[in-house]
């Protein structure tokens, strides 16, 4: 798979912007429902891992934290100017952990 320089730069920039957006989103996550928070992260392309305390249904859980955003990248060759090939990182997987308090009150 080969990328042009523009595609490679766009892919790298999009990955950095996405992580910044997630970290900004994570701060007020406790005000959101657990299902909504998880759904929004999945819509952003994350594989969401959940750790929870308690056994209440998801609808009754509170988000206590969103952490550990991780990106797994792969180096992909792209055609550079003047016939020079370069390797650029491309995101192939994104994961994040959502902590829930599902204890019955």
Automatic annotation (TrEMBL):
Keywords: Signal. It comes from the Bacteria. Residues 1-31 form the signal peptide. This is PASTA domain-containing protein.
């Amino acid at each position: 798979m080969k990328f042009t320089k523009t595609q490679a730069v766009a892919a790298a920039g999009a990955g950095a912007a996405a992580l910044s957006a997630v970290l900004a989103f994570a701060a007020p996550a406790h005000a959101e429902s657990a299902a909504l928070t998880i759904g929004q992260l999945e819509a952003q392309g994350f594989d969401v891992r959940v750790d929870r305390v308690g056994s209440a249904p998801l609808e009754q859980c509170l988000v206590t934290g969103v952490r550990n955003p991780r990106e797994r990248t792969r180096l992909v060759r792209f055609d550079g100017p003047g016939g020079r090939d370069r390797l650029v990182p491309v995101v192939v997987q994104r994961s994040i952990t959502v902590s829930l308090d599902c204890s019955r009150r």
